[in-house]
Amino acid sequence: MFFYFYLFLLSPASFAGENKIRVAGDKYFPPYEFVDENGEYRGFDIDIMNAISLYCGFEVEYVPMDWNEAVKALEAGAVDVVLGMGKTPEREKRYDFSKPILINSRVIFVRKDNFLINSLDDLKGKRISVPAGDIVEEIVSGLEGADVIRESTQEKALQNLVDGKVDAFIGNKYSGLYNIQKNKYHDIVKIVGEPVSSTEYCIAVRKGNV
């Protein structure tokens, strides 16, 4: 449903005179966007952008990189678009966003033998693993006494939990579930409590880049 809906978010006239755009994205954020074992850039976001490019008649050059680097590249004008970004009031000051592709949730993952953590308040004074540059960094910054470990990918942040290096991992629900299934961590990791945040997930450009 989202795939066909998104064809109508942009008009062919929006790209009049433009033949090619540079599109940055996370090189490992499955199932949204990731470089697979064959070096191919794949995922839900790629399918959407390919559909838009066909509809609007422009060529896409994909530039997969670490998430933090993708944001820096957009701000520096080295790329035209970031494939997917959670929209927040703070980010709206710096970027313009498409209509939302979907609603993303950040949730708390803990080990299955942990029955003491059920909410954000329970993470005060605890070790927490998060993906660097994610919205969740803003959420955990106010947790008293928390020791926050930042990793370059969702999977690395999750692995810290599996290895017992942290008490909890806070990250994207769908990406976390993907990595749990991929690595067969069903008997090790669980989700607890309610989502700590929900945001609209959109395509982003620099402010004013119509």
Short description:
The chain is built from seven helices and twelve strands.
Word description of this protein:
There is one protein chain. The chain is of the alpha/beta class. The chain is 27% helix and 35% strand. It folds into two domains: 2-102 and 200-206, Periplasmic binding protein-like II (D-Maltodextrin-Binding Protein, domain 2); 104-199, 3-Layer(aba) Sandwich (D-Maltodextrin-Binding Protein, domain 2), CATH 3.40.190. It has helices spanning 2-6, 44-56, 67-76, 89-92, 136-140, 154-162, 173-183; strands at 20-26, 28-29, 33-35, 41-42, 59-65, 81-87, 95-97, 102-111, 127-131, 147-151, 168-172, 189-206. The strands form two sheets. Strands 1, 5, 6, 7, 8, 9, 10, 11 and 12 form a nine-stranded mixed beta sheet that branches. The radius of gyration is 18 Å and the shape is globular.
